[in-house]
Amino acid sequence: MNTTSSSTRALVLGGGGSTGNAWLIGVITGLFAAGLDVTTADLTIGTSAGSTAAAQIAAASPTELFAVTVAAVPQRQRPAPTRPVVNHMERIGKIIAAAADAADVRRRLGASALDLDAASDGSWHTQWRTTVAARLPSQEWPQRKVLITAIDAYTGESVVFDRHSGVDLADAVAASCSSGLPYRIGDGRYLDGGFRSNAENADLAAGYERVLVLSPFGGRSLWPQEWGTHLATQVDELRAGGSKVETIFPDSKSEHMFGTNAMDLSLRPPAARAGYDQGSGLAERLSEFWR
Questions:
Q1: Which of 117, 152, 171, 192 is catalytic?
Q2: What is the rounded CA–CA span in Å between residue 50 and residue 45?
Q3: Is 117 a catalytic residue?
Q4: Tens digit of pLDDT for each residue in 102-118?
Q5: Quick check: 1 pLDDT over 60?
Q6: Looking at 18, 48, 179, 215, which residue is catalytic?
Q7: What CA–CA distance (Å, rounded) separates 255 from 95?
Q8: What is the secondary structure of 156-185 as a DSSP string?
Q9: Diameter of the chain by CA atoms?
Q10: Domains of the chain: which residue ranges?
């Protein structure tokens, strides 16, 4: 049975680190410059770096965001670390290997993050909020429907913030981007939305007629395929429910800028330009789908 709503469009912005955010802005701007404005989606879902992009495109034009993104990156001295130095990817890999399923991973990740937080000096939360808030053109939730994903570090349960959640936009984005230490909102502690199911969380677009997924990580996941949490599985489920779905992944010429290089600030301008080229090249084909 087709369960989709009539003429509704969802834009899914996946996680992918600093370069992933730049690529997302580039793709959206390339589409926009070619005449296709996807920022008017009825629903925007943002995860991790995609949550930052979701908040950014809701408050500023793609052209303005792109100009800032491709500007030269100043060389800044790295501040002294304020939290334990941990190889987070290695830590996460070990947790996944020991877990029974996705829910178990989330619980274990939350417990591990809380242990790290207990060993820190506590200053990271304020510093992180300041950093995230500075990236947002507006501190106000948009009127258009935007969902920001995270997980509860105490329980491992899924959390989806929106303008009705009673949480500031900057706090929601900071939580969604917290892959190491848990981010504090009131008495709660929250972790990266990419731990909810995958870096995209496209399942939240169920019921929408057209779903456009931008995935800096190309739909890849660290979680075992048999857990059924991969983007490809979610896309199949959306289509089975009647949604039309299109995905955009970085092309082979630019995929080296993601993954292990995702936090390299010097790669933000080329990642944005690569996204722009992809977006402008795909606009004509996607226009009929989106409109």
A1: 192
A2: 8
A3: no
A4: 999 999 999 999 999 99
A5: no
A6: 48
A7: 26
A8: --EEEE-TTSS--HHHHHHHHT-SSSPEEE
A9: 57
A10: 9-79+121-290
**Structure letter (DSSP) for residue 210:** E
DSSP per residue, 46-112: E-THHHHHHHHHTTS-HHHHHHHHHSPPPP-PPPPP-S----HHHHHHHHHHH-SSHHHHHHHHHHH
Tens of pLDDT, residues 122-144: 899 999 999 999 999 999 999 99
Q: Which amino acid is at 75?
A: Q
48 tagged catalytic? yes
Sorted by sequence, the CB contacts under 8 Å of residue 262 that are 6+ apart come out as: 16, 17, 18, 19, 20, 216
CATH no. of 9-79+121-290: 3.40.1090
**Token reading at 50:** 């995609």
Nearest to 11 by CA among 170, 204, 168, 149: 204
